[in-house]
Amino acid sequence: MAGLGVPRPVPNANKSGMVGMLLLFGAGFGLGWGPLTYVVVTEVPALRLRDRSQRVSSLVNIFMNFLVNFTLPYLLNAPYAALQSKVGFIFGTIAV
Question: Which one of 12, 51, 56, 87 is least enclosed by Cβ atoms within 10 Å?
Answer without folding.
Answer: 12
